[in-house]
Specification:
Rossmann fold, Luciferase, domain 3, GMP Synthetase, Chain A, domain 3, 26% strand, globular
Length: 555
């Protein structure tokens, strides 16, 4: 194990830390005992105290157990935009000894069906506007109950902020077996049974896509999730007086850990924004004296492009962190010139429940993953092998530490391919190509996996192709990533239409169908019809040839 990065380690921080041997729910219980009246979350000027947050979480936990039959180890879907109910539901599911299955709020159609079927979920907490995408699967497989949340239930204070219509929407009437209104659940005030989940019980199954097609559930325990959130707090100096702006979605591991779990562990406050809005973000930073913000680079680009930015006092910001996509050098400089702040980049995967690497706050490098965090070892090895490479040599990044997942849910072959034993230690193959500089800092060079990075969202071509093959007019489809000035990369699909459909179907028709059946960031922004697609002698689509053709066009 190389220790050269220790020379740049944050002063006073131990290389290894002891993680609490408790469930994640205990973090909320402790903060509620310590800071009962302090705001845990703020939602359009409605402040919800730690006491009230725990009270509602306990009531929902009791309801899940008593009315929905949720038992220890059961999977419960959480399908919503950022809101107080997301936080309450997360901790309620954990309080009931069950497992949180976060569902991307942009998921639709076949995507939602896959989450229901693959996870074996018995229940869901779903936002009202997303219920139509989930309802067709209610009563199928093991899925029997859905608690429906209305964002406006937590608009309890007068506000002059421009609240979006989807947040202001009044509760709709619910009819149908298995549907439960959030407000009825709260009124029932059910008492949960004894909390028995411990550090090695399942806690969260975030889904990640892969080159083989449909998303795979990453099995995490309370211990693995606890490690990255506690390390993040210590590394970044998170404290009870911190005010965090939560703009990254909680259904992604970075938003979940940095903007929700870490503040709750510390007894701090999160100011929640359901969807990205650059003007609203600036207003909230000014109004609540936000001190820390975790954001992807496209959010920073958009904020800095706001022509009215000078109207807002953003001097309270002390730290801006993020990851998901490299911060462009010009944007990093503009951020520093405007706020005097260095963007602290980190690196992690759903398989590591957020960071495995972070830049030291006082010695951050740009467009850099950083160094391995506490209790973590990382190596760059020969692609497909285990031989560690020398400084500057490019290979696959491997990660060993307590944050590495247990494996993919019901996917033993994929788990075996992702994990490798080296010197008696279990390492995760990241699928990312990178190198290490003389200081021990890690950098990404390319990707082993066939993945598109669109504004920090990971798009897996095989998954998009699988869904596109359900289109009645498509005979073949091949998806690649192409350069995009704003998103970094965007999605392009090469399509061969069925003979009877040629001349009757337009590119816009394919894009429209995709919009109705998949998350917006996965939708091909460009569709090109072809009479045929290149194939190898074995009959496999030669996607690399199409990728190379596009790159040559761009030169």
């Amino acid at each position: 194990m190389s220790t050269r990065h220790y020379a740049h380690w944050p002063r006073g921080l131990p290389h290894d830390i002891t993680i609490p041997a408790t469930s994640l729910y205990v973090n909320l219980a402790i903060s509620a005992a310590r800071y009962p009246t302090k705001p845990a979350v703020v939602f359009y000027d409605t402040a919800i105290s730690y006491r009230d947050l725990q009270r509602d979480a306990d009531a929902l936990a009791g309801y899940l157990q008593q009315a929905c039959g949720v038992r220890k180890g059961d999977r419960v879907l959480l399908y919503s935009q950022n809101c107080p109910q997301w936080v309450i539901a997360y901790y309620a599911i954990l309080r009931s000894d069950a497992v949180v299955v976060p569902v991307n709020a942009m998921s639709k159609g076949m995507e939602v069906e896959h989450f229901v079927k693959d996870s074996g979920a018995v229940a869901a907490i779903v936002a009202q506007e997303l219920l139509p995408y989930l309802r067709p699967w209610l009563g199928q497989h093991a899925f029997r109950h859905a608690v429906v949340a209305t964002y406006s239930d937590y608009l309890r204070a007068a506000t002059d902020l421009p609240v979006p219509e989807f947040v202001r929407a009044a509760p709709a009437a619910l009819d149908g077996h298995g549907l439960h209104a959030w407000r009825d659940m709260i009124a029932a005030d059910e008492v949960p049974g004894e909390h028995t989940a411990g550090p090695d019980d399942w806690s969260v199954f975030p889904y990640t896509s892969g080159t083989t097609g449909y998303p795979k559930g990453c099995v995490h325990t309370h211990r693995s999730v606890m490690h990255t959130l506690v390390t993040g707090c210590i590394w970044s100096g998170v404290h009870p007086e911190m005010i965090a702006l939560a703009t990254l979605p909680f259904f992604h591991v970075t938003g979940m850990q940095s903007s929700m779990n870490s503040p709750i562990y510390a007894g701090a406050t999160s100011v929640i924004l359901p969807r990205w809005d650059r003007t609203m973000a600036a207003q909230l930073i000014e109004r609540y004296k936000v001190s820390t913000w975790t954001a992807i680079s496209t959010m920073i680009v958009d904020l800095l492009a706001n022509p009215d930015l000078e109207k807002y006092d953003l001097t309270s910001l002390m730290r801006i962190t993020g990851g998901g996509a490299a911060m462009p050098e010009a944007v990093a400089k503009a951020l520093f010139d405007r706020f005097g702040l260095t963007y602290i980049e980190g690196y992690g995967l759903s398989e590591t429940i957020a960071p495995s690497h972070i830049n030291p706050p006082l010695r951050a490098k740009r467009q850099c993953l950083g160094i391995p965090i506490c209790n973590t070892e990382s190596r760059v090895v020969a692609i497909g092998g285990t031989r560690e490479l020398d400084t500057g040599e490019v290979g696959e990044i491997l990660i060993h530490g307590p944050q590495v997942f247990q494996g993919y849910w019901n996917q033993p072959e994929a788990t075996s391919a992702a994990l490798v034993d080296i010197d008696g230690k279990r390492f995760l193959r990241s699928g990312d190509l990178g190198d290490v500089d003389p200081d021990g800092y890690f950098f990404i060079v390319d990707r082993v996996k066939r993945m598109i990075n669109a504004s920090g969202f990971k798009v897996w071509p095989a998954e998009v192709e699988n869904m596109m093959y359900a289109h009645p007019d498509i005979q073949e489809a091949c998806v690649i990533g192409v350069n995009d000035a704003y998103r970094g990369e965007t999605v392009k699909a090469f399509v061969v239409l069925k003979a009877a459909s040629k001349g009757n179907v337009q590119e816009a028709d394919i894009i429209g169908w995709c919009k109705a059946n998949m998350a917006a960031y996965k939708v091909p922004q460009i569709v090109e019809f072809r009479d045929s697609l290149p194939k190898s002698g074995a009959g496999k689509l030669m996607w690399r040839q199409l990728q190379d053709e596009e790159r040559n066009k761009a030169r």
